[in-house]
């Protein structure tokens, strides 16, 4: 019996090594924007299978470049000695320096993304989702979800639009959630074979909670609505849990600066760092804790890095607020004006608080 067990084990190991899928190449198309995209359809999509590690002294290299390489796979050999025979690269190691831990990679499950995915044929949907989430694809492990309407929605809404409903008795997920995002998230998780680290971000509170009684433009949360707005986050997590979806994280507000701009054109709500500090310390943090959501990663800012490190200092120098905060979320707009040293400075001030890029889009 023992021998058979050993034999079976060896076979599995052997099959494991032999089982690496072939990598299907990119079918390029040039739309005239300086490089190519890879075209997928219902029967074909390029793949990026989980690599099997090469033998000792060799390295796998994956190259994507403006000339059109897309995860082009090559092997290098390396040696300890720069003059080592036949070596492509020299090996060196900074053994005493630990750099960052990568939380992962992902994309956003917006209303628009879900609708565009579901408008494809079922086979094309599967190939697209597989190319992002499955072990044959990019293995995305993070997903951002808009909490109510955002600028990638086809209408403006929140989950409690009934005027003055401070008890949130009319709170309800919308068709954008139940018919679009939730089915797509579930299929993505099934293809990933593991739960995704999902986090939710609101763009605006219901109009009636705001100083300007509108979803857009210059307007902030009314101070008498600080608690109902914290309760709204808990209701959101509860309603998604009832649909079988667990959230890994939350951001406090998408781009809080937008609601302090005159005439900002899409869903927004303004916060200063001081207002956000107070709301996290007195309302959101305690409310999440009270409802068993203290494990959900709470991220502040969710805006451009030029606001760092000041925003982080305003919130995190208050130990009451800081105890509820896990991370700092940053977007990439305006990165051309302010260098990455802002992130390093922020990290050095708050090394236990992670920094995550949460939004980057073109157009
Ligand atoms: C799908 O893409 C493959 C690879 O480019 C191509 O050979 C095939 O004709 C395409 N199928 C359709 C229906 O366009
Ligand atoms: C490697 O080769 C270079 C140039 O041929 C030589 O100057 C150098 O001393 C060599 N280094 C070692 C470690 O052999």
TrEMBL record:
| Origin organism lineage | Eukaryota, Metazoa, Ecdysozoa, Arthropoda, Crustacea
Task: From the Swiss-Prot or TrEMBL record, give the protein name.
Answer: Glucosylceramidase
Q: Which reaction does it catalyse?
A: a beta-D-glucosyl-(1<->1')-N-acylsphing-4-enine + H2O = an N-acylsphing-4-enine + D-glucose
GO CC annotation terms, alphabetical: membrane
Q: Which InterPro entries match?
A: GH, Glyco_hydro_30, Glyco_hydro_30_TIM-barrel
Q: Name one GO biological process term.
A: glucosylceramide catabolic process
Family to which this protein belongs? Belongs to the glycosyl hydrolase 30 family.
Q: Which UniProt keywords apply?
A: Glycosidase, Hydrolase, Lipid metabolism, Signal, Sphingolipid metabolism
Organism from which the protein derives? Penaeus vannamei (Whiteleg shrimp)
Q: Pfam family of this protein, just one? A: Glyco_hydro_30
Superkingdom of source = Eukaryota
Q: Which SUPFAM superfamilies does its entry note?
A: (Trans)glycosidases (SSF51445), Glycosyl hydrolase domain (SSF51011)
So what EC number does this one have? 3.2.1.45
Q: Does the keyword Signal apply?
A: yes
Which residue range or ranges hold the Glycosyl hydrolase family 30 TIM-barrel domain?
A: 103-363
Q: Give this protein's Gene Ontology molecular function annotations.
A: glucosylceramidase activity
Signal peptide bounds: 1-19
Is-annotated flag, keyword Hydrolase? yes
